[in-house]
Amino acid sequence: MQLEKHQLDRHNDKLFNGHQRKLSFVQEFTPECEAIIKKLMAFQIGIPSWALGNGGTRFGRFSGAGEPRNLEEKIEDVGLLHALNRSSGAISLHIPWDSVADPSNIRNLATQYGLRFDAMNSNTFQDQKGQEQSYKFGSLQHTDKAVRKQAIEHNIEVIRQGVALGSEALTIWLADGSCFPGQLNFRNAFQRTLESLKEIYAALPAHWKVFIEYKAFEPNFYSTTVGDWGQSLLFANKLGPKAFTLVDLGHHLPNANIEQIVSLLLMEEKLGGFHFNDSKYGDDDLTAGSIKPYQLFLIFNELVEGMDARGMDHASDLGWMIDASHNIKDPLEDLMQSVEAIMIAYAQALSVDRKALQLAQQENDVVRAQEILQQAFRTDLRPLVAEARFRAGGALEPLSLFRDLELRKELIKERGRETVSTGL
Ligand code: PSV
Ligand code: MN
């Protein structure tokens, strides 16, 4: 389904005057508005192919309707999102859920929607039908060389498919670890994983990156072989300049200071990418900014500060992706909310008075430092985000337009009620 230009125009015309009034108010008090709008327009967030359908928990799944039935329809969904918000110009694929038989067709389709392919994701956390070796006791860490070989070959196949689509990165998330004390020799598991990763690393094309994603627990509950940013950084450092750490916001133990992690990884030139989501307890995969919006802002504050310190391009030097699972919301609506929350946090971080903050830090003026951060966080910059979207050809209020046009109903008409999208 394609959004028609006249539908967008009618929506924007109706909201234009109100938007202008809110925008002028923000412009009056935010001197660097134009620079912020330009940065927002350039900033794109990759949408995970596995988040376009309703997920579930181990207790059940309440399926949505009109879910994409294949990769073509997933691309169509992301195309729709991007047409609405102009900030979702990339899709991240998970193999084998999204295995591509004809990459050139898929690539053309994505181009038609103005999308590129973000990092490719491999899957050695599930056994696939007909697979020779089982990942029950791990994949790249496995004690049996034949299992490791199968997992390495799978990752190399994912790179091959990614190359055909024009992707430039591979994300490896391993469920490897152990459930019980004594099950695993930690050092040996680490070394075996490193040897396996080295083989995958050697297969990376020259301009490719590999992101090593860490996660504290789940599905293993006693130890995880890439369990935190320290372990991920160890692997990335040992592998070489094309290897980086990927931070998924839901993969930390409670109250971890993620903004500090991000700052140090950037300093070490080892932060590669992000999986945005939010959580209350564990890897809840909730809408970004729905639980801890201040934390999201603080993370962006460190990102902007750290990237600027190194002269990095905000839009292209890191991989920005969402990783979410929608148990009760419409996935497209949820993704729109996540993108909006990310853009707001980014805009607020861009508006921080850096010079004043540095001075306050230098002088140990703790009160002033907090005032500066909270001034940015408590200023409503939504009109700037809307203006960036509008200038880029999107909708002033994507979610309202999605609802006004009853786009989910249209998708159900096309695809049916009983559709199940691949993914978790
Ligand atoms: C694991 O929890 C994870 O965050 C990894 O990124 C996976 O690829 C993704 O979720 C989907 O299972
Ligand atoms: Mn993730």
Walk me through the structure.
Keywords: Isomerase, Manganese, Metal-binding. InterPro entries: L-rhamnose_isomerase, Xyl_isomerase-like_sf, Xyl_isomerase-like_TIM-brl. It holds the Pfam family AP_endonuc_2. This is L-rhamnose isomerase/sugar isomerase. GO terms for molecular function: isomerase activity; metal ion binding. By secondary structure, this protein is α/β, with parallel strands linked by helices. The protein has one domain: TIM Barrel (Alpha-Beta Barrel). It has 15 helices and eleven strands. It has a six-stranded parallel β-sheet with strand order 4-5-7-9-10-11. A three-stranded parallel β-sheet has the order 1-2-3, with helices on one face. Helix 5 links the parallel strand 4 and strand 5. Helix 2 packs across helix 13 and helix 3 packs across helix 10. The longest helix is centred in the N-terminal third of the chain and has 25 residues. The two termini are 25 Å apart. The mean pLDDT is 96. The site of manganese (II) ion has 5 residues, from loops. Alpha-D-psicofuranose binds next to loops.
